[in-house]
Design brief:
single chain, 125 residues, mainly beta, 7-stranded mixed β-sheet, 4-stranded antiparallel β-sheet
Length: 125
């Protein structure tokens, strides 16, 4: 049973940076990892993904500002968020999955993942 725990959220001013972390446990195989965000009452939006082979994908809204990386040995996944904007305000969730043969669009979709963390709140004012 895969467990994911996020941390690093907080309240910042526009233009500042935050780094989110996700620690994973309960599995031994490499997995695809993703970061999603959601506003109350809205669907989850894929923000960034990193595949088992290290390939990364980003939503257009965060390209050039956000960066996803991982430490496979420590089972940690990071989301470096720079130049934050008020519209980045959301609950950010880490996700893990094992599906293969996915397109970039699919890797940013919820169907690619079957394990989710509880989330960490990011507020930008």
């Amino acid at each position: 049973h895969v467990q994911l725990v996020e941390s690093g959220g907080g309240s910042v001013q526009a233009g500042e940076s935050l780094t989110l972390s996700c620690v994973a446990s309960g599995y031994t195989l490499p997995m695809n990892m993703g970061w999603f965000r959601r506003l109350p009452g809205q669907e989850r939006e894929g923000v960034a993904a990193i595949a088992k082979d290290g390939k990364t994908d980003y939503a257009d809204s965060v390209k050039g500002r956000f960066s996803i990386s991982q430490d496979k040995f420590k089972k940690l996944v990071y989301l470096q968020m720079n130049s934050l904007k008020p519209e980045d305000t959301a609950m950010y969730h880490c996700a893990a999955g094992r599906r293969t043969g996915l397109t970039a669009s699919q890797r940013l979709g919820v169907m690619a993942y079957n394990s989710w963390g509880q989330g960490t709140q990011v507020t930008v004012s």
